Amino acid sequence: MKGFVRKLLSLSMAAALVLITAGCGSGGQDAGTEDGNSAAGQSIAAGEKIVNVGVTDSLGGVNPFVIDQTEINKYAVGLMFLPLVELDSELNFQGMLADSVTTEDNLNFVVHIDDAATWSDGTPVTAADVEYTVRRLASPVVNNTTLMLYAFEGVGDDGFVEKEAESVSGLQIIDEKTIQFTSKYPMALTTFENTYARYLHVMPKHIIEKFSEEELLTADWFSHPDVISGPFFLTDFDNDHYISYEANKDYWKGAPKIDKLNIRIVDASQIYAGLQSGEIDITHHTMTAIPQEDFDSIEALENVTTVYGAPITNQSAFIQTANIQDARVRQALLYAIDRQQLVDQLLKGHGEVVDGFVSSASPFFSEEVTPISYDPEKAKQLLEEAGWDGSQTLRFYVNSGDSTFVNGAQVLVAQWAAVGINVEVQTVDLATLMTIAGTTDYDILAVQYTYAPVDPYPDVDWLLGGEGSWTGYHNDEISEALAGTQQTSDVEKIKELYAVVDKKVQEDVPMFSAYVISAQGAVSNRLTGAQPSEYGFFNNVYNWDVVE
Question: What is the pTM of this model?
């Protein structure tokens, strides 16, 4: 089980840590071009309905066999090739290609493809498409490690099968529309759905089987596929500026109401101006980093509606327990800070304070875990008991790209100083921060981390995994509780187990949450059927419409 969890880190990190990169596109109503003309050579016909989504993440690619699973890559591909399931805005799993995913033993997962699901050329989507896609993703030639397929029978511990393998024992086609996945380890249904079914973009076997495994990596077809299962055909893209689509009129769930969709990649500083001018119609809660200083200005715009999302992005601070070994000192670090003040002043109230990993957005959130209150006198008492003499200076590493928390870190440093803890802030870029996180050469390290509300297990187990993890902390009681979350589908039981974890973390403080962010999103009043959300954003994109 531990090997499964350790390797899950690669996907967890890709999904949880969003690197905000600055595109430099600006421009016209169709997409990001400097002269205002249509991007990607798209022409704009009179009366065409066009929607522009403004994001601040840069695209990594559109080939499902090559991309990692960061959000913008996932969604860019998912508009063409549906995953098996997706989360909706209420954190329920919604069928996309699949209409059911079930398990009776947390080892065998039966996926049934919607009987109505068809490719844009009229060919039915079948279990054979799913099996072929997974088998090729597990090829050592394709070398895609982000789906972590080693969890399934017949796949090596390195995540691969033999080159050009003709079958995988952990994938069994039951009938034309049904396939069974068999895991090597007990796995909660939510883990299978969230870690695998959400990220498996099924490809049309009858089209891609003509490519060799080597050609799957480079074939130009993936840049403009002519057979898709999703609502939009890709027409063109520029990794740093735009992704352009046109409607799949034969979409099996219903023809999209808009003609063209563009994902515009811009600098965060351009979001307000784009919303104001109408060049951006809608933003995404996690792909679009709206600066805190623009919140009030965007709320004041008459042509848009602002929507604050559920609190899911945790400003986590990880304490390297190998360096700060006394739990009383770690407790003092938590008691000494006024986290509600950070929410009120830095986030303007759009967030919450929690202890541990599970926020109120999660179905596993327990009100039994009451956050530690600000109590500087208690902090001083703990330090005195620990024999803290104040001579040590702790090294606190912070992401320089997170301007809000760079300011917040200075508040924490002042509050720690007030109780006798000297802390020095080091601001570094995210790539450097991740390098430092792989060492023990820090005392505290802060980064925004999204623990999947429906399945925090992989991240939590890694982060509390003892030597080699970001905290260096391990506790048998926590390990037992986490293992238990994978052996039941009872939400109330899982909630109890995560409460055990969060209470123990609250007691020993290998990490603390500075705050959990409720991100701002915005949508033009001309757009109907769409709303900013953390999850389920594009699930019903075929129902989006514009009213001029």
Answer: 0.83
